[in-house]
Amino acid sequence: MDTFRAARARDRRSTALRILDALRLTERWQPFGDPVLVGSVALDLVVEPDIDLEIYCDAPSVAQGFAALAPCAELPGVRGMRFANALDLDDQGLYWRLDYEAPSGGTWQIDMWLLAHDHPGPRAADLVAPVRAALTDGTRDAVLAVKEGAAERGEPLPGVWVYQAVMDHGVRTYEEFVKWRAGTPTDGLTFWRPGR
Predict the structure, then answer these.
(1) 57 lies in the same domain as 107
(2) Looking at the DSSP assignment, which residues form a beta bridge with residue 52?
(3) How far lies 157's CA from each of 10, 47, 91, 144, in Å?
(4) What local confidence, expressed as pLDDT, does residue 188 receive?
(5) Nearest residue to 94 via CA among 67, 127, 71
(6) Residue 138 domain-assigned?
(7) Which tens digit of pLDDT belongs to each residue from 50-82?
(8) 100 and 8 within one domain
Protein backbone atom coordinates (compact mmCIF):
# COMPACT_ATOMS: atom_id res chain seq x y z
CA MET A 1 0.00 0.00 0.00
CA ASP A 2 1.24 3.47 -0.92
CA THR A 3 1.16 5.35 2.40
CA PHE A 4 1.59 8.70 0.63
CA ARG A 5 -1.44 8.02 -1.56
CA ALA A 6 -3.52 7.09 1.51
CA ALA A 7 -2.34 10.22 3.34
CA ARG A 8 -3.30 12.41 0.40
CA ALA A 9 -6.80 10.90 0.40
CA ARG A 10 -7.15 11.48 4.15
CA ASP A 11 -6.04 15.11 3.77
CA ARG A 12 -8.57 15.68 0.97
CA ARG A 13 -11.32 14.10 3.07
CA SER A 14 -10.45 16.39 5.99
CA THR A 15 -10.69 19.38 3.66
CA ALA A 16 -14.07 18.16 2.38
CA LEU A 17 -15.45 17.78 5.91
CA ARG A 18 -14.24 21.28 6.82
CA ILE A 19 -16.05 22.63 3.75
CA LEU A 20 -19.28 20.86 4.71
CA ASP A 21 -18.99 22.36 8.20
CA ALA A 22 -18.17 25.85 6.88
CA LEU A 23 -21.20 25.82 4.56
CA ARG A 24 -23.40 24.06 7.16
CA LEU A 25 -24.94 21.99 4.37
CA THR A 26 -26.20 19.14 6.54
CA GLU A 27 -27.83 21.64 8.87
CA ARG A 28 -29.36 23.57 5.95
CA TRP A 29 -30.96 20.42 4.50
CA GLN A 30 -32.28 18.94 7.76
CA PRO A 31 -35.56 20.92 7.84
CA PHE A 32 -36.43 19.44 4.45
CA GLY A 33 -35.09 15.89 4.58
CA ASP A 34 -32.44 13.47 5.77
CA PRO A 35 -29.01 14.38 4.34
CA VAL A 36 -26.57 11.50 3.77
CA LEU A 37 -22.90 11.92 2.89
CA VAL A 38 -22.09 9.56 0.00
CA GLY A 39 -19.39 9.02 -2.59
CA SER A 40 -15.65 9.30 -2.14
CA VAL A 41 -15.81 11.46 0.99
CA ALA A 42 -18.01 8.91 2.78
CA LEU A 43 -15.63 6.14 1.65
CA ASP A 44 -12.39 8.01 2.43
CA LEU A 45 -11.34 7.64 -1.23
CA VAL A 46 -11.10 11.31 -2.18
CA VAL A 47 -8.94 12.27 -5.14
CA GLU A 48 -10.93 14.91 -7.03
CA PRO A 49 -12.28 17.98 -5.16
CA ASP A 50 -15.82 16.65 -5.13
CA ILE A 51 -18.37 16.17 -2.34
CA ASP A 52 -21.63 14.25 -2.76
CA LEU A 53 -24.80 14.39 -0.67
CA GLU A 54 -28.14 12.69 -1.07
CA ILE A 55 -31.09 14.15 0.81
CA TYR A 56 -34.12 11.91 1.35
CA CYS A 57 -37.59 13.38 1.83
CA ASP A 58 -41.25 12.47 1.37
CA ALA A 59 -41.65 14.46 -1.86
CA PRO A 60 -38.75 16.34 -3.54
CA SER A 61 -39.58 20.04 -3.79
CA VAL A 62 -37.80 22.64 -5.91
CA ALA A 63 -38.88 25.40 -3.51
CA GLN A 64 -37.53 23.57 -0.47
CA GLY A 65 -34.22 22.88 -2.19
CA PHE A 66 -33.75 26.52 -3.04
CA ALA A 67 -34.83 27.51 0.49
CA ALA A 68 -32.03 25.30 1.82
CA LEU A 69 -29.35 26.51 -0.58
CA ALA A 70 -30.15 30.10 -1.56
CA PRO A 71 -28.39 31.49 1.54
CA CYS A 72 -25.20 29.76 0.39
CA ALA A 73 -24.99 32.14 -2.58
CA GLU A 74 -23.92 34.92 -0.19
CA LEU A 75 -21.23 32.92 1.59
CA PRO A 76 -17.54 33.63 1.00
CA GLY A 77 -16.04 31.19 -1.44
CA VAL A 78 -19.28 30.13 -3.12
CA ARG A 79 -18.68 30.94 -6.79
CA GLY A 80 -21.66 29.34 -8.47
CA MET A 81 -24.81 27.28 -8.14
CA ARG A 82 -26.56 25.03 -10.67
CA PHE A 83 -29.92 23.28 -10.63
CA ALA A 84 -31.54 20.52 -12.68
CA ASN A 85 -34.98 18.98 -12.42
CA ALA A 86 -34.62 15.28 -13.24
CA LEU A 87 -37.80 14.04 -11.57
CA ASP A 88 -39.10 12.66 -14.86
CA LEU A 89 -35.73 11.22 -15.94
CA ASP A 90 -33.78 8.12 -14.86
CA ASP A 91 -32.31 9.91 -11.82
CA GLN A 92 -35.81 10.73 -10.49
CA GLY A 93 -34.63 13.61 -8.35
CA LEU A 94 -33.72 17.25 -8.04
CA TYR A 95 -30.08 18.21 -8.39
CA TRP A 96 -28.08 21.16 -7.09
CA ARG A 97 -24.38 21.87 -7.41
CA LEU A 98 -22.31 24.42 -5.55
CA ASP A 99 -18.87 25.49 -6.73
CA TYR A 100 -16.83 26.46 -3.70
CA GLU A 101 -13.37 28.02 -3.66
CA ALA A 102 -11.66 26.66 -0.55
CA PRO A 103 -9.51 29.00 1.56
CA SER A 104 -6.65 26.51 1.16
CA GLY A 105 -6.98 26.80 -2.62
CA GLY A 106 -8.78 24.92 -5.35
CA THR A 107 -12.44 24.82 -6.28
CA TRP A 108 -14.63 22.05 -4.91
CA GLN A 109 -17.76 20.76 -6.60
CA ILE A 110 -20.56 19.86 -4.19
CA ASP A 111 -23.25 17.69 -5.78
CA MET A 112 -26.58 17.31 -3.97
CA TRP A 113 -29.55 15.15 -4.96
CA LEU A 114 -32.95 15.61 -3.31
CA LEU A 115 -34.68 12.23 -3.59
CA ALA A 116 -37.86 10.60 -2.32
CA HIS A 117 -37.56 8.16 0.59
CA ASP A 118 -39.03 5.51 -1.72
CA HIS A 119 -36.64 6.29 -4.60
CA PRO A 120 -36.27 3.04 -6.58
CA GLY A 121 -32.52 3.44 -6.97
CA PRO A 122 -29.82 3.11 -7.64
CA ARG A 123 -29.00 5.17 -4.54
CA ALA A 124 -25.44 6.06 -3.60
CA ALA A 125 -26.50 5.87 0.06
CA ASP A 126 -27.06 2.13 -0.40
CA LEU A 127 -23.54 1.66 -1.76
CA VAL A 128 -21.52 3.20 1.09
CA ALA A 129 -21.81 0.44 3.72
CA PRO A 130 -21.15 -2.54 1.40
CA VAL A 131 -18.16 -0.85 -0.25
CA ARG A 132 -16.68 0.16 3.12
CA ALA A 133 -17.12 -3.41 4.38
CA ALA A 134 -15.51 -4.90 1.26
CA LEU A 135 -12.50 -2.58 1.03
CA THR A 136 -9.09 -3.93 2.00
CA ASP A 137 -5.83 -2.02 2.20
CA GLY A 138 -4.97 -3.41 -1.23
CA THR A 139 -8.24 -2.54 -2.95
CA ARG A 140 -8.33 0.89 -1.29
CA ASP A 141 -4.85 1.59 -2.66
CA ALA A 142 -5.85 0.34 -6.12
CA VAL A 143 -8.95 2.55 -6.20
CA LEU A 144 -6.85 5.57 -5.28
CA ALA A 145 -4.21 4.64 -7.88
CA VAL A 146 -6.83 4.42 -10.64
CA LYS A 147 -8.45 7.68 -9.57
CA GLU A 148 -5.12 9.51 -9.34
CA GLY A 149 -4.14 8.20 -12.78
CA ALA A 150 -7.35 9.59 -14.23
CA ALA A 151 -6.94 12.91 -12.37
CA GLU A 152 -3.42 13.34 -13.75
CA ARG A 153 -4.95 13.08 -17.23
CA GLY A 154 -7.85 15.41 -16.42
CA GLU A 155 -10.37 12.61 -16.86
CA PRO A 156 -13.34 12.54 -14.48
CA LEU A 157 -14.37 9.03 -13.40
CA PRO A 158 -17.60 7.99 -11.68
CA GLY A 159 -16.32 6.17 -8.60
CA VAL A 160 -18.78 3.28 -8.78
CA TRP A 161 -17.15 1.96 -11.95
CA VAL A 162 -13.69 2.16 -10.39
CA TYR A 163 -14.90 0.26 -7.30
CA GLN A 164 -16.46 -2.43 -9.49
CA ALA A 165 -13.35 -2.80 -11.66
CA VAL A 166 -11.04 -3.05 -8.64
CA MET A 167 -13.19 -5.23 -6.36
CA ASP A 168 -14.76 -7.61 -8.85
CA HIS A 169 -12.28 -7.68 -11.74
CA GLY A 170 -8.84 -7.32 -10.14
CA VAL A 171 -7.96 -3.98 -11.74
CA ARG A 172 -5.01 -2.34 -9.96
CA THR A 173 -3.82 0.49 -12.22
CA TYR A 174 -5.28 3.24 -14.35
CA GLU A 175 -4.04 1.48 -17.50
CA GLU A 176 -5.80 -1.73 -16.47
CA PHE A 177 -8.94 0.26 -15.77
CA VAL A 178 -8.88 1.76 -19.28
CA LYS A 179 -8.70 -1.74 -20.76
CA TRP A 180 -11.51 -3.01 -18.50
CA ARG A 181 -13.74 -0.04 -19.32
CA ALA A 182 -13.26 -0.56 -23.07
CA GLY A 183 -15.26 -3.77 -22.76
CA THR A 184 -17.77 -2.61 -20.16
CA PRO A 185 -20.67 -0.18 -20.66
CA THR A 186 -20.14 2.56 -18.05
CA ASP A 187 -22.43 5.32 -19.28
CA GLY A 188 -25.61 4.52 -17.35
CA LEU A 189 -26.92 3.94 -13.86
CA THR A 190 -25.91 0.74 -12.06
CA PHE A 191 -27.18 -1.31 -9.13
CA TRP A 192 -23.74 -2.89 -8.65
CA ARG A 193 -22.66 -3.99 -5.17
CA PRO A 194 -19.34 -5.63 -4.17
CA GLY A 195 -19.28 -9.40 -4.61
CA ARG A 196 -22.46 -9.68 -6.67
Answers:
(1) yes
(2) 38, 111
(3) 19, 10, 18, 12
(4) 82
(5) 67
(6) yes
(7) 999 999 999 999 999 999 999 999 999 999 999
(8) yes
